Structures are given as C-alpha cells and as structure tokens.
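Model it.
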Amino acid sequence: MEIKKTYTPEQLKILRLLAKEYPSIPLASATLVNLTALCNLPKGTEHFMSDLHGESEAFEHILNNCSGVIREKVDTVFYRTMSERERRALCTLIYYPTEKIEEMRAAGADTGDWYRVTLYRLVDLSRSVASKYTRAKVRQALPEDFQYIIDELLHTSGEEHDKQAYYEKIIDTVIEVGQGGAFIEALCRLIKRMAVDCLHVVGDIYDRGLHADRILDMLIGHHKVDIQWGNHDIVWMGAAAGSPACVATVLNSALQYNTLAIIENTYGISLRDLIGFAQETYRGSTWFMPRTEDDAYYVKNRMQTLSMAHKAIAIIMFKLEGQLIRRHPEYRMDDRLLLDRIDYAAQTVTIDGVTYPLNDGHFPTIDPADPYRLTDGEESLMSSLTYAFRHSKPLRRHIDFLYNCGSLYKAFNGNLLFHGCVPMTEGGCFDEVAVRDGQVLSGRSWLDYCDKTARDAYYEGGQDALDFMYYLWCGKQSPLFGRSRMTTFERYFVADKDAWTEVKNPYYDLVEDYDNAVLILKEFGLDPETAHIINGHVPVKAAKGEHPVKARGRYIRIDGGFCRAYHDTTGIAGYTLIYSSKGLRLVSHSPFEGKQAATRENRDILAADDVIFEMMTQRMLVRDTDAGKAFLDRMNDLHALLDAYREGIVSPEQ
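Modeled.
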C-alpha cells in the first residue's frame, strides 16, 4: 500500500495558491504538457551590440540584417534554387522592403509575377525562421493587418495537394487587390522579428554620432531588448535627472562633435541663452572648433559662434566639476582640480608636479582667487539649462526607457554583460571602494550600489545621488569609466600629449587571463565552464591584430569601433555577437556607406572573416536558458499539485 506524502503548512499554502491558478486536473495537466514541449524547442537567437554612439543608419542596417542571421537563413533555404545575386537581392528586400519595392516600381519591374514569386519565397523563409517557436508566440509576432492570412500560409504548404489551390488563391488575391507591397513589408517585418529573439545593447548609445534619438526610438519599438548603461548614457541620464555638471558635460560633447541637433530639434532645449552668453564673454578659439567634417546642422560661417559656446560651456563644466569634487573627498579626484593650479599671469598650469604652457590663456569668467565660483551669468544660464533638461518630455521618454529596460549589468543565459569593468587592483583582487555612508564595497556589491544610486538620482533626486551620476561618468573607480582620469582639460589647453595620459584600470589587462575571468564570473554567480563576460567601452584595435576573444573564450569585447570617429583606430566598423542554439559567432562589419548603396547595389556591411568561436556539442534548448529554468520550476510545482489533487490533499475547483 502506497503511503501518502506529508506536506508542511508552507507547502500546503503554496499548493492551495497554485490550485487557484490551475483549478482542475485537466488544466494543470495541459499546462504541464505545454511547458514540457516548450522546454524542448531550440533556444532563441540573441544579438549583442555595443558602443553605437549615435550611428543610427549603421545601427538600423545591422538591426535589419541581424548580423548575418537573415543572410544565413536565405542561403540555407534557397541555395539550390536561387543564384547568389538573387539571394543578395532578396536579403536587401527584407532589410529595406519599402525602399526596394519603390525601386522596383520605378523600374517597372513590380509585375504580378515578381510579387507572386517574391511572396512565395518570403512565406517559405518565414516558415523557416518561425520553426523554433511555438505557434502561439508566432501569432503574437504577426502584423495585425495580415495576421489571419500569414497564419494560414505558414501552416499550409503549397505542396499539399488538397490545399494547393487554397494556398495559391490566397497569394493571387493579395496581389489582385493591390496589397502585394504591403504584404511583402509585413512578411519582412515578421522575418526580422523572428530571426532574433532578444537584443542586448552593451552600452553607449549617446554622443559622437548625430542620431542617438533615432536609435532609442528603434529600441523602444523592438519586441525584446535590454541595455547595459555606458558612461555616455549615464551622463545623459544624470542631465535628465537634474545634475548641472552632467548638463554641462552633455552640452560640451555636443558642441565638440557638432551634434546639437539632438539637443535643440529632438529634445526642444533652446541654446539661445548659451550662444548669447558666449558671444558676450568669449572670443573664438580654433582649439574649440567642433571636431567634425559634417556641417549637417550648422553651416561653416557659424563655426566661430560654436567655438565660443564650446569654450564657455567647457569652463562652466570645469567649475562645476571642481565644486563637486570638493563636496566629495571620497571620490579621490583632487587631481582634477586644475583651475586653481593655473598661473593666470604666466599662462601655465601645473599637473602632477609638471608645469605646462597653456595654448589658450583667455579666461574672462574665472576669478583666480576663487576659480570654481560661477559668475552670476553662468549661474543663471545653468539654472535655465538644467531646468530645460529636467523637463524635456521627449528626453524624459528616452531616459525613462533607459531606466526601465536598462541596468548597470545583466547576467542572462549564462553570460555576464556590462559596459566597462569590474574595478580591480594590480594584484588581481576586486578594488575596494569606500562610499559616503562608511561602507566598503567591491566586486558585485559595488556594481549593485552604483545601479541603485543611479536610480535614486532619477526617481528621488538629492545632491549626493546627482553628484554620483557625474562620478559614474568619469570617476577613477567607476565601473562605467575604468580609467585613472578623464583628461578633457589637458586636451583642450595643453599641447604636450604627455599630459593627456589616462591609465586604464587593471581589470582590462587582468580579464584577458583565464583565471581572472573565472574569478569575475564566479563573483556574479555564473558557471565559469560555460559562461562569458561580454564588454564594450574599449575599442578592439583589429587593424593592429588585436582579437576580441580572450581568456580561452571566457572574455569577449565587442566594441570594434561602431562610431565613425574610431574607424581609423580599429580598422573596422564594429563587432556584433550572435548567440544561437548552435553556438556563438562574432561578426565584424565594414563601414556603412548609406541606405542608398545598400538598396541599389544590394551592398551589405558584413566582413568576410566572421568567427564561429564556440560551438555547442548539443543544440541548446529552451530548458537550458534562464526562462527554461523557471519553466522547469513551474513544472515541478505542477507535478506536486497533480499529486496533491490525486491524493485528496487539495481538492480541484475549490
């Protein structure tokens, strides 16, 4: 005779709560069957990018081609029936359906036969990319206007004799009623959505490039995305939270790279007062001319005005930085207090005991006796600018998204994602950081503290939290920065490049060693035998032979120079990483020559030297993912509930 199981009061409480969700044996059994089936599907493909820096066109293209996943699927499905040229054209159509259809119309090539053949091919490809998902998940991804039709086509083969006429009639009718183009666009959206299950952006969406706003709009519309904040993101987050030092830094960068359009046009923040203040106070300096060859926003005869504004905001930034550093001796950033180390008569500055001549000694708003005090004009200007950043609705929409979908780091499906570093000592230990409340933190606890304080700054405010946002931007132990100093002052005012040195945190060298990578993975609770550290922040100098995969495959750095400003340094235009059920593949990219070249010439930016550097011995299934582990826990609970139902411990429908 089988003895009934005994249950603790806590177990009974859990079972009774579960019974409310699954109040019958058939419902609990059906859910158990569904979860079991789901756990045995292949894992969805993950796509990793980093350091986008406002390069919206290149980002959109890589988002469209899914770093080669689309091309791989097209080659797999059609390599026997289509030439390489035809396959490339089909890929371009999937990337840019609206533009490609218009091109076909202009050439008079959008015939009924073209629509028919194209739709058949897209349906076949859609069926292939959707095969690893449940039918319910595919339905959720279907475009609303064509949901029923696409669902029918995906689950009806034209080769089935009984349904062949039905299948063909659907396609013919779509074309006859003039919906061929719209239907092609709907299928292309579905293919791109199903090709990649999840997108990870490992920091630095903002600055340098022109259109971080467009990137954020695309990310907001993405079906599943997470973001690990970079230091260029955090300074914008600090500006939106109301930190004057972060506001000045954002404006300084926008003036440096001539990207003011995002400030004024997108976020509606007027710079008229800054321009007026600069014109009254500063004479121009070629040293402060914007670093750009693109005059997309300001024509050349306004560059002198920009130079004045750039210098004005830079001086304000150095003053605010100095005030902040004095408020926080725990930041250990006294070496950045440089305005009181200037000999204003001799026009020199002393840095680390070395005296350098200044290449610009015109400081009309600095009082040598109190160099960090803002003038009344500067105080008024920063008050209005900070208010404008704090209350810009379009900016708040983007920053809300960064907080809601972002974090300082993320452990996901066995990978550890963060933008910069986990600060370490030369000896290979996690660096200890003393925070203001007396705690000493290191490793994961330090990153958790940074994440929480960044959220406090935005949602609760407070001087200390707002100041900390600036520290995260450029502090020596900031996990988002990871250098000894940010030498902005030196680069502006000292010609001797010896003064520009920024020493990287020991992490960047140590993590390339297998044992140190294992130490970090264990700190975050990950299995070092299978897990990976995935970083951005420091460009990989591929042109000099540097490889992005190190520490026996445990460490991957995917900043390959997405931003045009880094192309000469890296020799490529970025790395992206693909993690499918079959393994990990690193993809390098060539510079993007624009959407027009991509559509007219079917030109892609995938380099030929993609590296599949880790293959699974067995295909990874949903059960092996973080979501799968949660499903397995729920399956165990359901097994227990069914046992309790059958033993009469818990009654169905009660």
